[in-house]
Amino acid sequence: MEHFLEACKGKLIVSCYTAEEQNPQFNSPEVMAALLRSVQAGGAAAIRVNVKWIPLFRQITSLPIIGIKKVFQGEEMRITPTLEVVEEIVRAGADAVAIDATRRPRFDNLSLEEFIQAIHNQFSITVLGDISIVEEGVNAAQWGIDGVSTTISGYTPYSPHYGQLGDIPPKEPDYQLIRDLKARIDIPIIAEGRINTPEKALQAIECGAHAVVVGTAITNPQKITELFVAKLEGKY
């Protein structure tokens, strides 16, 4: 755990998430391998990726890997919401697992506290909690999580700057959440969400983030192109 977190301190983690519902043009082994090699050559300190690609990535790189799996129930989605999914990620070879640590209804019969404790009891892996507000981060820290990520800020109905993934133009990162978490918890805070320039990444670190995750702005050419086109067409 300490090695993984130390390897990422002050550095860039690149999210290479692809699936049928997001960045589908990249959803093939050859393209994903090229994507990984590109971000590794560019200096990424770690990778965040869905479980489908962890075995492939593990063959190619020694960089730390944060594994996730998005699970859908109707229109609701949760990140790595059950122990079965955690086990799948562990077996695939991830160094860390990101879980949903929001206060939203869960997809199993465990409380979040029970879920975190069960992961630690059953698996030897770093556990990161994706949150949307400061209280969620404080609770997760009290319940033994290893680090928290601001991934879901803006995407729960009760968090600031409520919006949708892929909004054009994207809203600003939730820097205040990073500051508030830094003042209240001692575990690492990973900044993620709407960080689409180097300047915003640096600002997140200056606000107290342990590391920064960037996804769309690096790994999703379709969304980047849409942003440029919308600007030229006067849509924002």
Looking at this protein, list some descriptive labels.
alpha/beta; 8-stranded parallel barrel; globular; 236 residues; TIM Barrel; two-stranded antiparallel ribbon; 10 helices
Can you offer a commentary on this structure?
With about 240 residues, this protein is an alpha/beta fold. It has one domain: TIM Barrel. It has ten helices and ten strands. The protein is globular. The N and C termini lie far apart (about 45 Å).
Short description:
This protein is α/β, with parallel strands linked by helices and 236 residues long. The chain is built from 10 helices and 10 strands. The radius of gyration is 17 Å and the shape is globular.
Task: Reconstruct the topology from this structure.
Elements: H1 2-8, E1 12-15, H2 29-41, E2 46-50, H3 54-60, E3 65-68, E4 70-73, E5 76-79, H4 83-92, E6 96-100, H5 112-122, E7 126-130, H6 134-142, E8 147-149, H7 175-184, E9 189-192, H8 198-206, E10 211-214, H9 216-219, H10 221-232
Parallel strand pairs: 1-2, 1-10, 2-3, 3-6, 6-7, 7-8, 8-9, 9-10
Antiparallel strand pairs: 4-5
Shape: globular
**Major β-sheet annotation:** 8 strands, parallel, barrel
Alpha carbon gyration radius: 17 Å
Beta strand %: 15-25%
Number of strands: 10
| Count of helix runs | 10
CATH H-level superfamily: Aldolase class I
Report the CATH architecture.
Alpha-Beta Barrel
Strand order of the largest sheet: 1-2-3-6-7-8-9-10
Q: CATH fold name, please?
A: TIM Barrel
Low-confidence stretches: none
Please indicate the count of domains.
Answer: 1
Mean pLDDT metric: 95
Q: Which range best describes the helical content: under 10%, 10-25%, 25-40%, 40-55%, 55-70% or over 70%?
A: 25-40%
Q: Mind telling me the CATH class?
A: Alpha Beta
Helix-strand topology string: HEHEHEEEHEHEHEHEHEHH
Derived from helix and strand composition plus strand pairing, the structural class reads: alpha/beta
Distance between the termini: 43 Å
